Amino acid sequence: MKDLYLMRHGQTFFNQEGLVQGACDSPLTELGAEQAQQARTYFEQAGICFGRLYSSTQERACDTLELVSGRTDYTRLKGVKEWHFGLFEAQPERLQPTFRPGAVSFEDLFVPYGGEDAEQVGERMLLTLTQVMDKADRQEPTLVVSHGGAMWAFYLKVAAQALDSKVRFGNCAICHYQYDQGHFKLVQVIDPLTGSVYECE
């Protein structure tokens, strides 16, 4: 069994301003940097030391990883970039399509506007993270910093269990997965900003 900690970046300028942020990028705010430091403190207090480190190629994820780990020896991966939201990129979040009744994600609603659908995002995340974990050490956990939408699409792709509706992948949220022979199991969802840990069955 191998351990993967899949983490969202800290707050960014676009997050603060309520703008859609997918393939486009914006820098961490001061609060975002502080959130990354809180995540670092969580890992240190939990005694979690990482082997390999990976980040999305986007600035907000790379900066978060460097603050969390204090290291620069990481690999950037396009496969864990945020969901591409097409023409909605950098637009106010209130303009986005709304979920269909009964849906748990945006599904394919961005495709007509040049964006990705949930299946595409989940599949590229699965492919990339499988390659990462096949190379990982069993003794040292792996840290990957990604994005909220991409993390949710990955969860929908691989998780057999349902999350409590109160669980959110907020800034610096950490999903602890266990990996074995091509299969991922979500073990915990950790919020290092509040100290709450949701134990998955």
Alpha-carbon distance between the two ends:
17 Å
What fraction of residues sit in β-strands? 15-25%
Mean pLDDT: 94
Shape: globular
Q: Within the CATH hierarchy, at the fold level, what is the topology? A: Rossmann fold
Count, helices: 5
The CATH C-level name is: Alpha Beta
Question: Over all CA atoms, what is the radius of gyration?
Answer: 16 Å
Strand order of the largest sheet: 3-2-4-1-5-6-7
Largest pleated sheet: 7 strands, mixed
- Proportion of helical residues: 25-40%
CATH level-two architecture: 3-Layer(aba) Sandwich
Pfam family, one: His_Phos_1
InterPro entries: His_Pase_superF_clade-1, His_PPase_superfam, PG/BPGM_mutase_AS, PGM_Phosphatase
Protein name: Histidine phosphatase family protein
Organism: Streptococcus panodentis
Task: Please tell me about this protein's structure.
- The protein is an alpha/beta fold and 201 residues long.
- It has one domain (2-199): 3-Layer(aba) Sandwich (Rossmann fold), CATH 3.40.50.
- It contains five helices and seven strands; from the N terminus they run βααβαβαβαβββ.
- The protein has helices at 13-17, 30-45, 59-69, 118-134, 148-158, and strands at residues 2-8, 53-56, 75-77, 142-146, 174-180, 183-191, 196-199.
- It has a seven-stranded mixed sheet, sandwiched between helices.
- The radius of gyration is 16 Å and the shape is globular.
List the helices and strands and how they pair.
Layout: E1 2-8, H1 13-17, H2 30-45, E2 53-56, H3 59-69, E3 75-77, H4 118-134, E4 142-146, H5 148-158, E5 174-180, E6 183-191, E7 196-199
Parallel strand pairs: 1-4, 2-3, 2-4
Antiparallel strand pairs: 1-5, 5-6, 6-7
Helix pairs in contact: 2-3, 4-5
